[in-house]
Give the backbone structure.
Amino acid sequence: QVQLVESGGGLVQPGGSLRLSCAASQNIFSFTAMGWYRQAPGKQRALVATITSGGITNYASSVKGRFTISRDNVKVYLQMNSLKPEDTAVYYCHAQRTASASYWGQGTQVTVSS
């Protein structure tokens, strides 16, 4: 069973930065893609950023230029800069192995407020 554990969330002022981490129980290069999604209160879970095993990245338009997804051998990261109140959400790590096999972390809360 694959386990994904997020960390790094918290409370930050508008304009601030946070770095989220996602640790996987298996080699992250065994997944075809990994990514970050977020869910704000009353809204559906939405894509934030993804990175494929080949290193191709994709970002939601709302975070492009502010967020950066990266990885090393054991973790996937989301560097979030210039945070806005509308970035407030629970952020989830996601790993895709095949079309029918994907996994979610438990989520980490990010709150952007003064």
About this structure: The chain has a mean pLDDT of 95.
